[in-house]
Write a sequence for this structure.
């Protein structure tokens, strides 16, 4: 294989081939030499992989998104594994639901690990020091919540589960633009809708727990309080996000938002003799959340 | 081309504009990442001029149009179907004698799908297809099982449709909008599945924990039973 010839050919089609292969110009300069003697030892062993990563398969941006997703799935998988092991669910149906969600999250971890590897990336590991779902960061600060896995704290378990699932839904949505028009987008959407199913069912479990009509299975407002009397520590899950790269903060509004693509959606349900519910417009669209806000929420449970 | 009132919050990226040029889209996207700057190309304030308003039907089919407009009309068609279904549910005797919990769910489903439908109608403006005729003769709106089974079918279908259509979308604003809707449809699907069998909220997942994604053709093949019009989806996303 005449690597020099191959690179010259590619260079005719794409003058920036060397930047694409390695942004460290000096590393690639050896290949731009027109001299016939290129040291064999200078040929990178993974030349084929380099070309593959430069021109084929997924780009680095997509790998970042996939690893972001994987990090969140590690956290969720740990939560539900411990929830099932704690075995504090009051009914067989409740335990079965937590088990199903656990199994889904574990499957997401495996799927994303495989996707990242086959794309030439390295899958993010679960957090080395584990996760502390009281929010005490492993004892480094005052806890935010009672231990959700302790007997008698099943309500807290479901509350944290709702917060995690609703965050996950917003998190996937927030990174979708970076996967635009790729097969990775399809996979991300196919995970994202499952997280929404989880979120809806956890909400129904919370209704069943106290025999209430709240929270609904859909997101109702911009605070924990309006989403089934969750504590204020969960407000960030439903609030406004922040600007991220090319996307302005208006891309990540709070869950009370009713303006979609410039269209005010309140009142659109008042048609054909029916009056829409007070929060119907806000409920009809789940909002995206930016990477940094999501990581701040998740960071409450990641032991440093 | 008619101006759609849908206003993207973000400027088209240089990558978006270059899609309109002769660069092959797929190979370009592979190596440019999300914020490419190639050479010294200037951003020329490009618009989505290659998305055509649907042409008048000459073959009896309702033309969904091409490109992103096609995808939006495709979504609009499905929302029309769902909204019409729930509007009928609210008129039937299952609903009128249902428990307050189930009434609350179906009232919300109706509200959400009507809002989705009316949103697409306004967002598409003069690019919107007309109102589609529906055929619900196979559904018994007085029977809980028939209503819930159909709701499950429609919601699962909608989720799989959005999941499959997402990667066809070129405009970031439209992609985000589709994303905002599909998770609500998935919440709907979970809710109605649990009404039939509590715990079946995510029985749709495969061995990877992924929900289905269907192609446009697959979705319309299922939906056609409930539509009196035939849709032309030949150029959706293209």
């Amino acid at each position: 294989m005449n690597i020099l010839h191959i690179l010259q050919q590619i260079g005719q089609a794409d003058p920036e081939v060397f930047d694409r292969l390695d942004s460290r110009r000096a590393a690639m300069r050896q290949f731009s030499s027109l001299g016939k003697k290129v040291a064999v030892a200078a040929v990178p062993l993974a030349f084929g992989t380099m070309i593959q990563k430069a021109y084929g398969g997924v780009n680095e941006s997509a790998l970042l998104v996939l690893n972001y997703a994987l990090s969140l799935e590690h956290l969720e998988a740990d939560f539900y594994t411990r929830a099932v092991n704690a075995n504090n669910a009051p009914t067989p149906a409740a335990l079965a639901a937590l088990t199903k969600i656990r199994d889904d999250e574990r499957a997401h971890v495996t799927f994303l690990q495989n996707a990242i590897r086959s794309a030439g990336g390295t899958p993010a590991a679960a957090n080395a020091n584990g996760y502390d779902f009281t929010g005490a960061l492993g004892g480094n600060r005052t806890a935010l919540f009672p231990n959700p896995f302790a007997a008698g704290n099943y309500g807290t378990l479901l509350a944290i589960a709702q917060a995690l699932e609703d965050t996950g839904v917003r998190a996937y949505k927030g990174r979708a633009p970076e996967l635009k028009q790729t097969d990775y987008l399809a996979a991300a959407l196919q995970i994202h809708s499952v997280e929404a199913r989880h979120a809806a069912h956890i909400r129904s479990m919370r209704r069943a727990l106290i025999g209430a009509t709240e929270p609904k299975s859909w997101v109702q407002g911009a605070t924990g309080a309006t989403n089934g009397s969750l504590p204020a520590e969960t407000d960030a899950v439903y609030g406004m996000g922040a600007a991220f790269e090319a996307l302005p903060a208006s891309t990540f509004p709070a869950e009370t938002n009713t303006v979609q693509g410039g269209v005010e959606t309140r009142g659109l349900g008042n048609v054909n003799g029916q009056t829409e519910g007070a929060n119907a417009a806000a409920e009809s669209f789940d909002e995206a959340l930016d990477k940094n806000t999501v990581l701040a929420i998740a960071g409450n449970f990641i032991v440093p | 081309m008619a101006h759609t009132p849908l206003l993207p919050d973000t400027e088209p990226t240089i990558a978006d504009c270059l899609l309109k040029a002769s660069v092959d889209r797929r190979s370009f996207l592979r190596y440019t990442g999300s914020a490419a700057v190639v050479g010294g190309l200037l951003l020329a304030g490009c618009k989505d001029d290659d998305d055509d308003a649907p042409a008048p039907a000459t073959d009896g089919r309702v033309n969904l149009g091409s490109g992103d407009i096609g995808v939006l009309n495709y979504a609009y068609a499905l929302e029309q179907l769902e909204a019409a279904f729930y509007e009928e549910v609210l008129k039937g005797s299952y609903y009128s004698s249902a428990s307050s919990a189930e009434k609350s769910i179906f009232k919300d489903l109706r509200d959400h799908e009507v809002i989705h439908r009316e949103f697409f109608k306004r967002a598409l403006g003069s690019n919107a297809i007309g109102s589609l005729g529906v055929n619900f003769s196979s559904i018994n709106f007085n029977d809980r099982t028939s209503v819930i089974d159909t709701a499950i079918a429609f919601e699962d279908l909608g989720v799989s449709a959005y999941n499959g259509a997402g990667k066809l979308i070129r405009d970031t604003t439209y992609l985000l909008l589709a994303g905002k809707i599909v998770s609500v449809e998935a919440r709907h699907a979970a809710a109605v599945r649990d009404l039939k069998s509590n715990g079946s909220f995510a029985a749709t997942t495969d061995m990877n924990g992924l929900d289905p994604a269907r192609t446009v053709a697959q979705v319309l093949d299922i939906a056609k039973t409930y539509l009196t019009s035939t849709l032309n989806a030949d150029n959706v996303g293209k």
Remarks:
- The first helix of chain A runs from residue 3 to 13.
